[in-house]
Structure formats: C-alpha cells, structure tokens
Amino acid sequence: xxxxxxxxxxxxxxxxxxxxxxxxxxxxxxxxxxxxxxxxxxxxxxxxxxxxxxxxxxxxxxxxxxxxxxxxxxxxxxxxxxxxxxxxxxxxxxxxxxxxxxxxxxxxxxxxxxxxxxxxxxxxxxxxxxxxxxxxxxxxxxxxxxxxxxxxxxxxxxxxxxxxxxxxxxxxxxxxxxxxxxxxxxxxxxxxxxxxxxxxxxxxxxxxxxxxxxxxxxxxxxxxxxxxxx
Length: 230
What we know:
By secondary structure, this protein is α+β, with helices and mostly antiparallel strands. Helices cover 17% and strands 33% of the residues.
C-alpha cells in the first residue's frame, strides 16, 4: 500500500510539473540597420530549444512559441548580413533587431547559370485533310497520335502540322472528323504534304417518340372545342 501511494505521489508531481510549464510567446521585427527596411526570410533561432525556430515574414516580423523559460539567447541570421545574438530577459516589449551588412558574405555568393535545356529529337509531320467527294477542306479535323496525348486540328484550309518526339514508340496516326469515317496511317509510311481524303460515313439517326402527356391532351381538346365553335 505504501509503495502504491509513493508511485501515485511521483505521478502527480510529474503531471504538475508538466502543466506548470506555461508556453511563452515572443514577437519581434528584423530590419536593415542602415535603411530600416524589413528583412524577409531572416532565420530566428532560440538556442537550446527544440521548438524555437522560425523566420521573418514579408513585413520582417517573427513570432516564437516555446515552453523554455527566460532568459533566452536568440541568434538571427540573413544572407549578406552579420549574425546577431541577443539576450531576452523580458517579453514586455517587442524588440526591433537591426542587422549589419556583411560585404564579404555577399562576395561569396556564386550565381550559377541554368543548365542548357535537354535537346529532344523530333519529327514534324504535315498534310491536308479534304472531303473525298467534293475535294473541299475539312476544317477542325482532329489528328491524333495513337497511344499518346499528342494531337492537333486542321486550319481553315484543311492543313495541319504536328511535332512528334522520335523516341516515342508509336505506330499509327488517326484522323477523325464528325460524320466521316475514321482513317489510320502507319507513321513509317506517312510522307509529308500528304492529302488525306475522308469518306462520309453513315450517320445513325434515331427518332425518339415521347409518350403523350396530360398537357398535350389538354391542348388537343382545346383545339377541338375551338374548331366546333367555328
């Protein structure tokens, strides 16, 4: 019984100690020491703390929330400026931290050019799509490479042009136009400036007959009455 009471006492003391650690909040402002302009993205680190790390916003402001008790030792750093260490013993005032430029650090910054873009070998195919019977251009006819998202449409004169990466293992090019039969060509045998003649397909038209409604019957009886009166 004494052992259980002692264990309970230790647990209560530990719980009281945890809840007694009140979270503290500090706000501050980081500016250029000469121009007094806000410094965006300055790192603010509370030493010897796991939760005291943040950075300044677009207005140069920052906020630290931590359970670590005062006093605090804070380090502020920013590219092109000397690191600054401050000691915080009170949270009554919002500190304005002025940073001094470090020309030596600016000279160390190396700007590397972007790598050249990767060159991809491509093949350009082109041609014209027309109506086989009338020999007129088919505007906005769809040309698609099978198995890919590569596609284009014909212009007002029925002409098209499409660029295809040569590394793609595609075989067919598909031509579609509403009311016409779909045509396919093997890319190996496709030559540029080819004229594709499209045949008109058979359009399946179906008439949908709606059942008579009460509203229609009412109209019919109305016209019958109107006719008998005449």
